[in-house]
Every structure is written in C-alpha cells, then in structure tokens.
TrEMBL record:
Keywords: Aminotransferase, Pyridoxal phosphate, Transferase. Residues 32-392 form the Aminotransferase class I/classII large domain. InterPro entries: Aminotransferase_I/II_large, AspAT/PAT-like, NHTrfase_class1_PyrdxlP-BS, PyrdxlP-dep_Trfase, PyrdxlP-dep_Trfase_major, PyrdxlP-dep_Trfase_small. Its EC number is 2.6.1.-. This is Aminotransferase. One of its GO terms (biological process) is amino acid metabolic process. One of its GO terms (molecular function) is pyridoxal phosphate binding. PANTHER family: ASPARTATE AMINOTRANSFERASE. Belongs to the class-I pyridoxal-phosphate-dependent aminotransferase family. Homodimer. It catalyses: L-aspartate + 2-oxoglutarate = oxaloacetate + L-glutamate. Its cofactor is pyridoxal 5'-phosphate.
Amino acid sequence: HPLFAQRMDRLGVPATIAMAQRARTLRAQGEKVLSLALGEPDFATPAAVIEAAHRAALDGQTKYPPVDGTPALKAAIARKFARENALEYAPAEIMVSNGGKQVIFNAFMATVQPGDEVVIPRPYWVSYPLIVQIFGGTPVYADCHEADGFRLTAAALEAAITPRTKWLVLNFPNNPTGGTMGRADLEAIAEVLRRHPHVHVLSDEIYEHLIYDGQRHVSLAAVAPDLKGRILTLNGVSKAYAMTGWRVGYVGGPVPLIRAMTAIQGSATSGICSISQAAAAAALDGPPDIIAQMCAVYDRRRKLVVSTLRNIPGLTCAMPHGAFYAYPGIAACMGRTTAGGQFLKTDEDFAIALLNEQHVALVHGSAFGQGPYLRLSYATSDDILTEACARIARLVDGLT
Ligand code: PLP
C-alpha cells in the first residue's frame, strides 16, 4: 500500500528548477553566479501599491476574503478588462486566484480527466503540461517555429485538434520565446476554433504589457466575441507591476467555469490574501505610466542583449517582440567541445557547461520543448546582462 498517490509519478521536476538548484549549489561554494534563469522583474513593487497594502491592513482588511475575490478588486479587474482589452466581464464572470498559476490549476482540475487532450503550442511554459498531467490529461503539442516569429499557425492548430481536445492554451506574448500574435493571427486561430465547438481556450495574457516595436496586445475574446463563452482570459499583476511575491492573478470567463473554479478554490485556499488583493486593486487603478517606464527599460535591455548575442559567431537570435525573454539558437555549437572539456550534444549540455565554466545560469530551450535554443531573461540590470553576454561569448569562443 504505497504512501504516495499515482499522480505523483506524473509530477516531473521542471528543468528550470533543476537549473536554479545547480546555480544555488555553485553559489554556496562561493562562486559569483549571474542568473538570467528567472522570469521575474527586477524592479521593486511601486511604492503607491505598497502604501495601499499598508492602509488596507490598518483599516482592518485582515479577515477571510470572499473565495472568488474582494468586490473592490473584482471591480478594478472589470475596469481593467474594459479599458485595456475592450472586454466586458461582469463580477460573476471574474475570479481572483493565488497567481495566474492557480487559475490554470483550478481550470484544469475542474475540467481535465484521463482521455482529455490539451493543445499546447511548443515551445511552452513548463507548467502547462505539468498541470495537465497531474489531472491525467494528455498534452498535445502544436509546434511554433522561429521562421513564423514563434506564432501559432492555424494549420498547426488544426492538425493538433482531435475529438478528445478539451482546451487550447494560448500564451502571447510568449514565455519562453517572446513571440506575439497580432489581430490577423488571432482571427485565423478563431476561424479554426469555430470549426471545433468542443474546444475551449485558456488565453494566458500575463505578459500583455511587455510588448515592443509599436505593437498593441489584443485579446482573443475581443477579436472573436462570438467565442467569448468558451474563452478564459487569464492575467495577473506579477509581471506587469513587479508583484510576483504578492501572488495575485485573475481570470475572466463564462459563469459555469468561474463557479466550478471557485468551488475548487474554496476547498483549496479559502481565497487570496486580503492585503495582496488591496494592493492589486491599487496597481490596476494606478497611473499607467508606471508600466510604460518599466517597459521602456526592458526594451532597452532587449536590444542590448539581442545585438550582443547576434555578434557572437555560432549564435543566432530572433528579435523577441514581447515578454522579457530572448531565445537564441545554438545549432552551430552542437557537436563541439568547450574549453573545460564538455562535449555539447544538446542545449542542456551547453547550459550546464555555461554554468560550470562561466557561472552564468539560464535555461536550455529543450526544457520548454524546443532545442537547440537557450532562454535567457533580460529582466535584470544592464551590467549583469553585459557581463553575462561576455561570458557566453567566452564559452563559445573556446569551443573546438
Ligand atoms: N503564465 C506564464 C506564461 C508565466 O510565465 C507565469 C510565471 O512565470 C505565469 C503564468 C504565472 O505567474 P503568477 O502565478 O505569478 O501570476
């Protein structure tokens, strides 16, 4: 009679975590490790947001909150969806969770069971397939290619859909590639979805504000209002407002799904930290120039990193148009050997050698389903980025 449930066998260790652990071990040995591995803004949470949290605590907002979110935050979310996404969601169509991640967990727990398929564009954020698998579902991958700007094409989606498909996950701007999808791209996706009325969509728009080159993010539910009844529009304050530790994400969607997800959350957590919810409401209602200022800094770092990487012989790097990741290709480095004697069979070998020999932590592309690439986050200082790129160049320069 084993202690652990069978679902634990399906709970893999994400390579991102494994890489972070290796970096910590090196640090513990006294090495100065530069980390470009984490998808986390290096900015501080805006002071006005912290003050709102302080006020909420002093005002007595310290009791159990409603499971689906405080009325004040849900109202701020409704205003945000209307203002920024041209989407009207009533309070009953909105739910607050412990980060965007819990939205995904709730949605799949409510709907995915053995036999169900979830279409996930590849490369993907590792949590999507991991959560699908916890509930016994099967991830089905739709490949996105650098030549298409890492966008999901209608043809790739069509080929992945079967009668067992329950969900499509869309995540643009994308982690790990920085790819974006414009209105015309989404219209093509909507056309496919109209032919397959059994498919629901989880549209993860958590990076919507981190978008460059004059583009504007558009929501699938706004492009295809006729499909709004089967779309969950996921967002959160982690990335846009540098609030990863506050753990506030939210979702807009059809009432039956919101109700089921609320029932799950009631059993799991009894709702989200009341003080964090007050902070999130202040962030969403705050002046938009805070986001614009951070975005301008990311944009500068993006150009710095991409132009530096492109100057390294043996590396290619598409210009990412969103999020804060670059996804350089390292095909020309495969089959070679580093100065430290590491034979590079895979992009994981490259990432490990880079950490061991140059003390730079990042994550190999095959951890996200597509190699040989590297994913590096440029949500860190210009100095660290410049030094890290110099170390990458040194590793590549030493290849024989
Ligand atoms: N979606 C994507 C694509 C992400 O990269 C992340 C965080 O890394 C999340 C959702 C979840 O963020 P949070 O749970 O902090 O809202």
